[in-house]
Amino acid sequence: MNGACADKPNASELYLELRDEEWPYEYTDHDRIIARAIVFDDDGFFYFVRAERDDDFGRATLIETSGGGVEDGEDLETAIKRELKEELGAEAEVICKIGVVSDYYNLIHRHNLNNYFLCKAKSFGDKHLMRDEIEDFHLSTLKMTYEEAVSEYEKRRETKIGRLIADRELPVLRRAKEIMMTGG
User: Which of 37, 99, 130, 132 supports an S-S bond with 13, CB 3.0-4.6 Å?
Assistant: First the structure.
């Protein structure tokens, strides 16, 4: 990794521990290691995915960072580059690790360890979405200014899953913006 915060000690990384207050806690039966990215381009735009879902979490249209589960034998940087290619069609440079958000989805009994990276898009090409991403979540790409993204996260708080995602991602987006503005 190189760029704005690559040479900074881990102490500068964001760490958040969040609880799911939307659904009652029963138990947690699995952890999921996830790699996610705040992706930006030379023109100052940010890239996210829009998901339109209707499942156990309810009917919702959401904004979310690109990312997903880390596969067996995969390191975090390899995972985020793969996820960006799959979901955004993006080749990207990993600038630095922003931090980790530990959160829970009580409805599906899962603890998530979201590892966030700041990534600069170098190019865009074909996406390689999984079947469920196409058929169940109808993933599409959002290109937005920082202000538009913050507004969209706030707007999507109308649903329980939207609140969980906004609580997780808005602090990371704000930290990413700070890194971009100050270099660390």
Answer: 99
